[in-house]
Design goal:
Strand content: over 45%
CATH topology of the domain at 6-123: Immunoglobulin-like
Distance between the termini: 81 Å
Shape: globular
Number of strands: 51
Radius of gyration: 30 Å
CATH superfamily of the domain at 6-123: Immunoglobulins
Largest sheet: 26 strands, antiparallel, barrel
C-alpha cells in the first residue's frame, strides 16, 4: 500500500528553535541608575561566525511601541553584540527590551526565545533618591567661564563625614563611575580631569548613610571652553575612525582561507554663533550596500529662537500611531511661539532598491533547451510627509493634531522586478502602497508631573497596491458589489490618495482606528503605570514601528521602593488579545505577569529574585495551540572589603527558562484505494535552559590592576513528541546540549588613567547530542590617550575552534581592530 504522509504544523518556526545553531545569552542589569550609561550586551555562545547583525528593541515599561537600535558587533575572539541605550533618563518606569540576531542565511533567533515582544527582559530603575545639599562643590568655581581642558573637581564631604559609610561613596563623571581614580579623605573628594573636550561635563556624588538611607548630590556640570584653536565659530565635536580586519584559515585538505575588512568613520559637530546653535552628524560605513537600505547617516541641525530645522537623516516623534521610530531622510522643522508649535517632516522613508535577475537554462528536455530570465522583487522608494500642530505645554496641558502621508513611488523600479503577467493573470512579487494617518492626542500633567494622563487616537486609510492608480466610483461599486456613498469621484483626488479595489477599508470605521490611554502616577516612592491600547485590523501606519495590528493590550506596572531604597518591588501584568472587533473566526489571547524583588541591605549581600510567566493560546477548533514560558532568575552578590590586598565583588546569577508549545494538527495518509484519511494529532515541544554564572571582580589596592574571573555553565534540554490518538502512534525526539565557559581578564590603569592595557582569555566547550566542540579565544588590547583630546583603542584577537566529531571542521581566526577618536 502506497502511503503519503503529511504533517501540517502550525508554528513550525517555533519548533525550529529547538535545533537552532545560534545560542544566545544575556544577563539583565541588576538595576538602572539614571545618571549612568546603560549598556546592553548580547553574548553569542555558539554560532557567532554565522551571525550577520543584531538589533535590540526597547521601550519604557508599560508603553506600546518599541524603539530599535542596531547593535555593535564584536569579533570571533570576543563573540558578543553591545549597544548603548541613549536618553535613559526619559525611561522613568524602567525599560523592557528583547533581541533579534540575524544569521547570514537570513534566518533569525530571538531572546527571549518565545514571544519576545510579549515577554521581554525587564530592568528596574532606581527612583526617589534623596538629593542632599550637604555635598558642597568647592572646585571648579562657576564664576570662571574660561575653564580649560585640565581642571580639578573638589567636593566637600564635611557635613556628612560622621554619617556616610566610606566605601559606599561613588563619583560619576560623564555617566561613568570613576571612583577608583578619585582621592578621598574623611572630608574631601578630589578628581583630576585631564584632556577634557570642549562642552559640558556632568558629575555627581552618591553615598549611603549609616542608617541605610541612600543620598546623592545634585547634577553639577562644568563647561570647558576651547581656546587653543581659533575658529570663526564656537564649535566642538568628535571624529572617529574604526577599522576591523579578519582572517580565517580552515583545517581542510585545500587549506582555504577568507579575509574581510570593514571600517566606518563618523563626525559629530556642535557649534554656536550668536543666537544660532547647530549640530551635524555624519556616519560612513563600508557595509553600506546598494542592495540594502542605507546604513550611512548624514544630518545638519540648526536652532534659532522659535525655529528648529534639520536637513538629512532624522527620527521625528509625531505620536506612536503617526510617525515614531523611523528614520526619514529629508527635512524636519519645528516653528514655535509661546504655547503653539507647528512641526513638519518630509523625505524618504525607504530608498529604491533595484531587484535582481537571473538567467536560467532548462536542459531537462533533450533537444529542447530553453532559457528564461527570473526576476526577484525590489523595494520601492517610499516618501513621507507629516504635519503636526501642538497647543499647550507638556508640563501642564498639551493637545496635538497631525496628518501623515506615506506613498511608494511606483515608477521607482521597473515592473519586471515586482510583477509577472500573462494572458490570464498578474502575480505581484511586491506592490507599491499608499497610506494616510490622521491623529490627535491630549496630555494632562499635574503636581509637578507626578501625575500624567493621556489619550491618543488615529484613523488610517491604506491601499496595498496602487500600481494601476485610482478607479472611478462606478468601477469601485462594481468591484465591491455595493453602493459606496462617496461625495467625490476617486479619480479626482488621486494625487492626495489612491482609491481602488485594494483599499482597506473601503470606508473608514472602527477597524481602521487605533487608540490608547495611559495613566502614570508617582507618589510616596511608588510609581504606577497603567495603559490600554487597541489597534484595528485595518489600521496601518507605514511611518511607525507598530508590532501588530488587530490587537488590544492592557498593561499595569507598579514599582515600589521601601526602607530607604534598600528594598525594590516591581510587579507587572500584560494582557494581549487580537480580533479586537470580532472580525475573525479565531482569537488569540496572551497574558504575561512578572515580578521582581531586589533587596540591598547595608554591608550584606544583595539578593534579587525575578519571575516571568507568559501563556498564549487560541480558540481555533481545528488547529488549537497553547504556548507557555516561565523564566526564573536569582542573583546575589557581595563586595568583600576584608580582602585588603584586593577588595573583590563576588556575584552569582542563575536563570531557569522553561517553554512548552502544544498544538493540534492534522495527520493524513492515502490508503490503497486512493482515499485520503485524516487523523487528529497533537504535538508538544519543550524548551528547557538552565544557566549559572559565577563572577569575581578584584581591584588591587597596591597595583593599578583589575581582574575578572567568570565561569558559566548552561544545560539545554529540548524534547518533542507527536501523538496520533486514533492510530495509537507516538513519535518522540530529544536533544540535549551543554555549554561551559571560563573567562579570565586583567586590566591595568597607568599614567593617570591615560594608558589602559588589558588581556583576556576564554575557553568554551560544547557537548551532549550536538557535536563535541571547543574554542579558545584570546584578546590583547590597549586604550591610550596619546595627545590632548586624541585617543586610540587597538586590539588583537585569536580564536581556535575544534570539532572532535567531524573531520575538516576545525579553523582558526585572527582579527585586528583599531579605533582613533579626536575631540575638538
Amino acid at each position: 500500500m502506497n502511503k503519503r504522509k503529511y504533517l501540517f504544523i502550525i508554528f513550525l518556526f517555533l519548533s525550529s528553535l529547538l535545533f537552532s545553531e545560534l545560542v544566545l545569552y544575556h544577563e539583565p542589569p541588576l538595576s538602572i541608575k539614571d545618571n549612568e550609561e546603560l549598556v546592553l550586551v548580547l553574548e553569542v555562545q555558539q554560532g557567532f561566525e554565522e551571525t550577520e547583525s543584531a538589533t535590540v528593541f526597547y521601550r519604557e515599561s508599560g508603553t506600546l511601541a518599541y524603539l530599535e537600535a542596531e547593535m555593535f558587533k564584536g569579533t570571533e575572539s570576543d563573540p558578543k553584540y553591545w549597544v548603548n541605550i541613549p536618553d535613559i533618563r526619559a525611561f522613568q518606569m524602567g525599560i523592557e527590551y528583547y533581541f533579534i540576531c540575524f544569521d547570514k542565511s537570513e534566518g533569525l533567533e530571538t531572546l527571549p526565545t518565545l514571544q519576545p515582544d510579549l515577554s521581554p527582559f525587564n530592568a528596574l530603575i532606581e527612583i526617589s533618591k534623596i538629593y542632599s545639599d550637604k555635598f558642597v562643590l568647592l572646585s571648579p568655581d562657576k564664576q570662571f567661564s574660561d575653564i580649560g581642558e585640565d581642571f580639578i573637581i573638589a567636593i566637600s564631604l564635611f557635613a556628612l563625614s560622621d554619617e556616610i559609610i566610606p566605601n559606599s561613596i561613588r563619583f560619576v563623571y560623564d555617566g561613568k563611575d570613576v571612583t577608583p581614580l578619585t582621592k578621598m579623605s574623611n572630608n574631601l573628594l578630589v578628581y583630576n580631569v585631564v584632556n577634557a573636550f570642549a562642552g559640558k561635563h556632568y558629575y555627581q556624588v552618591t553615598a549611603q548613610l549609616s542608617n541605610g538611607e541612600r543620598i546623592e548630590s545634585t547634577h553639577w556640570f562644568t563647561e570647558v571652553a576651547k581656546k587653543y584653536i581659533k575658529l570663526p565659530l564656537d564649535i566642538s565635536g568628535r571624529a572617529i575612525f574604526y577599522t576591523l580586519a579578519k582572517s580565517t584559515t580552515y583545517d581542510d585538505s585545500a587549506g582555504s582561507s577568507e579575509d574581510e575588512w570593514d571600517s566606518y568613520m563618523s563626525l559629530n559637530l556642535n557649534g554656536k554663533q550668536g543666537i544660532m546653535q547647530f549640530k551635524s552628524k555624519a556616519y560612513i560605513s563600508s557595509l553600506n550596500r546598494k542592495s540594502q537600505q542605507p546604513i550611512n547617516r548624514f544630518n545638519l541641525e540648526f536652532r534659532i529662537p522659535h525655529l528648529d530645522f534639520v536637513l538629512g537623516d532624522y527620527t521625528p516623534d509625531f505620536g506612536s500611531f503617526a510617525v515614531f521610530g523611523k528614520n526619514i531622510q529629508g527635512v524636519y522643522s519645528k516653528v514655535y511661539f509661546g504655547k503653539f508649535a507647528l512641526l513638519s517632516a518630509y523625505g524618504n522613508l525607504k530608498r529604491k532598491i533595484k531587484g535582481t535577475s537571473e538567467t536560467i537554462l532548462d536542459t531537462t528536455v533533450t533537444g529542447q533547451d530553453t532559457t528564461w530570465v527570473s526576476y526577484s522583487a525590489g523595494t520601492f522608494k517610499r516618501q513621507t510627509l507629516a504635519l503636526r500642530t501642538e497647543v499647550g505645554s507638556n508640563r501642564s496641558f498639551l493637545w496635538g493634531f497631525g496628518i501623515t502621508k506615506s506613498r511608494d513611488d511606483k515608477h521607482s523600479i521597473s515592473e519586471k522586478y515586482f510583477m509577472e503577467s500573462d494572458s490570464s493573470s498578474t502575480t505581484y512579487l511586491t506592490s507599491p502602497k499608499d497610506n494616510i494617518v490622521i491623529s490627535t492626542d491630549v496630555q494632562l500633567s499635574l503636581f509637578n508631573q507626578r501625575f500624567l494622563w493621556g489619550v491618543e487616537a488615529a484613523l488610517s486609510m491604506y491601499n496595498s497596491n496602487i500600481t494601476d492608480g485610482a478607479i472611478s466610483i462606478d468601477s469601485l461599486e462594481a468591484e465591491f458589489d455595493q453602493d459606496i456613498p462617496l461625495p467625490f469621484d476617486p479619480t479626482d483626488i488621486s494625487d492626495l490618495f489612491v482609491i481602488n479595489e485594494y483599499i482597506e477599508p473601503i470606508l473608514p470605521g472602527f477597524s481602521s482606528l487605533a487608540y490608547k490611554t495611559f495613566l502614570r502616577a508617582f507618589f510616596k516612592r511608588n510609581l504606577l503605570n497603567i495603559s490600554y491600547s487597541a489597534i484595528g485590523s485595518s489600521f496601518n501606519s507605514l511611518a511607525t514601528n507598530l508590532v501588530q495590528k488587530d490587537a488590544q493590550v492592557l498593561s499595569i506596572y507598579d514599582n515600589l521602593n521601601l526602607f530607604n531604597n534598600k528594598l525594590s518591588l516591581n510587579a507587572g501584568l500584560n494582557m494581549f488579545s487580537d480580533n479586537v472587533y470580532d472580525t475573525k473566526e479565531t482569537t488569540t489571547k496572551s497574558i504575561n505577569y512578572s515580578g521582581y524583588i531586589l533587596y540591598r541591605p547595608v554591608n550584606l549581600p544583595y539578593i534579587k529574585f525575578g519571575y516571568t510567566n507568559t501563556v498564549s493560546e487560541n480558540d481555533d477548533d481545528i488547529y488549537p495551540y497553547q504556548n507557555q514560558s516561565v523564566n526564573l532568575t536569582f542573583s546575589t552578590g557581595y563586595k568583600i572589603e576584608q580582602i585588603s590586598a584586593a577588595p573583590t565583588n563576588f556575584s552569582l546569577n542563575y536563570s531557569n527558562y522553561m517553554g512548552e508549545i502544544n498544538f493540534s494538527t492534522v495527520y493524513t495518509e492515502e490508503d490503497s484505494s486512493g482515499t485520503m484519511l485524516s487523523y487528529d494529532a497533537q504535538q508538544k515541544d519543550d524548551i528547557s535552559k538552565n544557566a549559572i554564572t559565577l563572577r569575581a571582580i578584584s581591584k588591587f589596592a597596591d597595583l593599578p590592576l583589575t581582574t575578572t574571573v567568570a565561569f558559566s555553565f548552561t544545560i539545554n534540554d529540548n524534547p518533542s513528541k507527536t501523538y496520533v490518538d486514533s492510530l495509537n502512534l507516538t513519535e518522540k525526539t530529544k536533544e540535549e546540549s551543554n555549554y561551559n565557559s571560563i573567562y579570565l581578564k586583567g586590566a591595568f590603569t597607568l599614567k593617570d588613567d591615560r594608558l589602559k592595557p588589558y588581556v583576556d582569555f576564554r575557553y568554551t566547550s560544547y557537548g551532549g547530542d550536538v557535536d563535541n566542540q571547543a574554542t579558545q579565544m584570546f584578546n590583547m588590547g590597549v586604550k591610550y590617550s596619546v595627545l590632548q583630546n586624541t585617543f586610540f583603542n587597538s586590539e588583537f584577537g585569536m580564536k581556535f575552534y575544534q570539532n572532535f566529531d567531524e573531520a575538516g571542521e576545525d579553523y582558526s581566526k585572527f582579527n585586528f581592530r583599531f579605533k582613533i577618536t579626536q575631540k575638538f
